[in-house]
Recover the amino acids of this structure.
C-alpha cells in the first residue's frame, strides 16, 4: 500500500498534465469493466515507461551523457548536447556502423559535405513541395500540434498518411481538443519541416539546412563516379547532421530538431535489381518482418521474401538485421522490419521498410531501408541541368538508389533504454561491450603500497589499444558501481598479488564475475572480451564480486 501511495505521488505532476491530454471524455467513453482495466493498465505502463525515461535522463545529466543544448539560457526544445560520455558512446556507435556497412563492398566510401544547400536541391528532391507535416492550431490559445500525433495519442492507433480532410473528420468525430486549453482546433493545414536560411548580405540566396544527409550524396554522385572506378554498385555514405523543424519534439533523443544520420546510398543498375553476388550467403537466413497488412511478426527466409521484394533489397535487409543482432547484440525479439503502407511511405520511396526496436516506449523506428529509384538523380538532372546519366556495360543509364538510413541518436537512446537495469544493489547500463564510453577501467585496489604506481603503468599499456578510465579514489566497490552506472563493461584491478606475480583481476560488469590473468596477456584478453567472449573462457575464475 505504501509503495502504491508513493507511486501515485511520484507521478502526480505527470497525472495533472496527462490526464488532460488523455482527454477525460475518453475515460467516460469506457464502456465496460474490461476496457476500464485496460485503460488502467495502459496508464500504469505509461507511468512505468515515463519513469524509465526520466531515470535515464537523470543519470544522463548527473554523469555526463547528454542534456538539453544551451541549458543556461533555458534550452531549446528538440536540441541536445552530448557530454563527454555520450559523445564517446556516439563515436563508438558511428565507428561500428562505418566499419560494418562500408566493409560490405570494396566500392563503398564515406564522404563529408556541407549541411547548408541551395533551394534548387530541394526543388529537385521534392522536399519543398512534399516534406510537410499535418498540423492543427487551437482557435483559443494558438497552440500548434502535429495532427497525426495528437490523434494517435488519444486513439492509440497509428495515423500517418491521412489527408487534411480525413484529419478534420476524425477530430470532429472524437471531439479532440487542444491539450493545453481544451479549445477547438482550426481545420488541419500543412507545414514544411525544413529550416530556411538567407545566405549573404545585399543579394540574398535562399538556402536550407539539409533535412537528410542523402541529398549531399546525390549532388556529388557524378563527380565521385568519375573519380572512382566508374563501376556500379557504388556506395557513398555520410555520417552527419540533419535538421527538421519538428512540430512536437519529444522523448529526448527520439524526435529532435537537429540530429545525426548515418546514411549509405547505394547506386546500382536497375536491370540488376534481382541480383546480388553474395545472396547465397543469406538465402536461408530468416528475417523478422511485420507486413503492413498484418498484426504479427513473421520469420521469413530471404529466399521466401523474393516473392515480393527484389534480391538486391533483401540482401541488404539481411545485412541490417545482422548488424543489430550480431554486432550490437540486440535481443532477437526486440527487432523487426515493419513494412510501410502506400499512404505511410516517404514520397520518394518505391519500397520502404522501417527497422524498429521494441524499447520501453514501444516499437520505435531507428532506421529505414528505402528503394528510391532514380527519383533524386533524375530530379537533380532536371533542375540543375547537369547530366546525371553514366555509361555502364555499354549502355547509358541514370542509376537507381537503395538507401540504408539510420538515426544515430535514436539508436543511442535505444541502447541506453535496453541497457538500463536496476539490480538489488546497483544501477547499471548493460550497453553492448563495443559501445561503452570507455573500453576498460583500471583501479589500484587501494591507494597505497605502490599499487597506484603499478596501476598507472598498466593504464598506460592499455591506452595504446583501448579507451581507458583510471580511478584511485574511494573503495573499489564504489568504483565498480560507478563504472556499472556509466556502462563500462570491464574493470582491471591491481592488487598485492600483482606485485608478486604480474597478474591482475578483470571484472565483468554484467555477471560481476572476476578472473585473474597475466599482464602480458591482458591486451589480448580484453580485446577478446570486448568482441563478445565469455569472461570464464578468458582466464582463471576467482569469484563473483561479493555484495556490498
Ligand atoms: N534519407 C531518408 C530519411 O531521412 P527518414 O525516415 O526521414 O528517412 C531516417 O529518417 C532516420 O533518421 C529515421 O529512421 C530515424 O532514425 C532518424 N530520424 C528522423 N527524424 C528524426 C528526428 N526528428 N529526431 C531523431 N531522429 C530522427
Amino acid at each position: 500500500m505504501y509503495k502504491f501511495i508513493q507511486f501515485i505521488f511520484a507521478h502526480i505532476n505527470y497525472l495533472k498534465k496527462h490526464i488532460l491530454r488523455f482527454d477525460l471524455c475518453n475515460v467516460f467513453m469506457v464502456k465496460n469493466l474490461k476496457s476500464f482495466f485496460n485503460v488502467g493498465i495502459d496508464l500504469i505502463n505509461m507511468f512505468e515507461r515515463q519513469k524509465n525515461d526520466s531515470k535515464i535522463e537523470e543519470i544522463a545529466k548527473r554523469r555526463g551523457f547528454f542534456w538539453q543544448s544551451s541549458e543556461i539560457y533555458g534550452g531549446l526544445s528538440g536540441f541536445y548536447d552530448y557530454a563527454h560520455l555520450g559523445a564517446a558512446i556516439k563515436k563508438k556507435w558511428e565507428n561500428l556502423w562505418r566499419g560494418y556497412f562500408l566493409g560490405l563492398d570494396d566500392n563503398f566510401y564515406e564522404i563529408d559535405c556541407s549541411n547548408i544547400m541551395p533551394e534548387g536541391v530541394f526543388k529537385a528532391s521534392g522536399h519543398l513541395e512534399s516534406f510537410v507535416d499535418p498540423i492543427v492550431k487551437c482557435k483559443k490559445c494558438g497552440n500548434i500540434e502535429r495532427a497525426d500525433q495528437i490523434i494517435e495519442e488519444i486513439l492509440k492507433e497509428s495515423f500517418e498518411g491521412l489527408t487534411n480532410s480525413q484529419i478534420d473528420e476524425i477530430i470532429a468525430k472524437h471531439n479532440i481538443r487542444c491539450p493545453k486549453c481544451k479549445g477547438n482546433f482550426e481545420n488541419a493545414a500543412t507545414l514544411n519541416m525544413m529550416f530556411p536560411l538567407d545566405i549573404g548580405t545585399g543579394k540574398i540566396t535562399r538556402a536550407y539546412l539539409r533535412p537528410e544527409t542523402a541529398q549531399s550524396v546525390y549532388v556529388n554522385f557524378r563527380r565521385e563516379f568519375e573519380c572512382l572506378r566508374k563501376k556500379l554498385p557504388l556506395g557513398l555514405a555520410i555520417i552527419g547532421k540533419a535538421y527538421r523543424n519538428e512540430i512536437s519534439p519529444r522523448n529526448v533523443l527520439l524526435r529532435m530538431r537537429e540530429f545525426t544520420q548515418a546514411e549509405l546510398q547505394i547506386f546500382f543498375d536497375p536491370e540488376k535489381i534481382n541480383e546480388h553476388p553474395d545472396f547465397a550467403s543469406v538465402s536461408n537466413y530468416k528475417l523478422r518482418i511485420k507486413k503492413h497488412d498484418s498484426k504479427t511478426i513473421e520469420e521469413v527466409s530471404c529466399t521466401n521474401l523474393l516473392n515480393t521484394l527484389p534480391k538486391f533489397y533483401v540482401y541488404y535487409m539481411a545485412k541490417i538485421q545482422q548488424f543489430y543482432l550480431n554486432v550490437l547484440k540486440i535481443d532477437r525479439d526486440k527487432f523487426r522490419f515493419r513494412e510501410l503502407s502506400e499512404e505511410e511511405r516517404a514520397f520518394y520511396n518505391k519500397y520502404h521498410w522501417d527497422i524498429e526496436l521494441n524499447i520501453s516506449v514501444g516499437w520505435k523506428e531507428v532506421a529505414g531501408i528505402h528503394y528510391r529509384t532514380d527519383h533524386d538523380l533524375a530530379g537533380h538532372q532536371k533542375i540543375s541541368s547537369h547530366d546525371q546519366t553514366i555509361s555502364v556495360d555499354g549502355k547509358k543509364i541514370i542509376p537507381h538508389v537503395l538507401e540504408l538510413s539510420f538515426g544515430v541518436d535514436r539508436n543511442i537512446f535505444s541502447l541506453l533504454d535496453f541497457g538500463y537495469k536496476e539490480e538489488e544493489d546497483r544501477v547499471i547500463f548493460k550497453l553492448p561491450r563495443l559501445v561503452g564510453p570507455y573500453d576498460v577501467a583500471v583501479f589500484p585496489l587501494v591507494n597505497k603500497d605502490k599499487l597506484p604506481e603499478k596501476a598507472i603503468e598498466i593504464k598506460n599499456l592499455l591506452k595504446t589499444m583501448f579507451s581507458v578510465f583510471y580511478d584511485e579514489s574511494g573503495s573499489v566497490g564504489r568504483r565498480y558501481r560507478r563504472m556499472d552506472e556509466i556502462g563500462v563493461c570491464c574493470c582491471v584491478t591491481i592488487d598485492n598479488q600483482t606485485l608478486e606475480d604480474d597478474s591482475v583481476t578483470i571484472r565483468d560488469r554484467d555477471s560481476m564475475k572476476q578472473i585473474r590473468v597475466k599482464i602480458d596477456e591482458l591486451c589480448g584478453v580484453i580485446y577478446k572480451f570486448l568482441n563478445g567472449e565469455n569472461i570464464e573462457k578468458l582466464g582463471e575464475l576467482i569469484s563473483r564480486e561479493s555484495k556490498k
About this structure: The chain is about 35% helix and 25% strand.
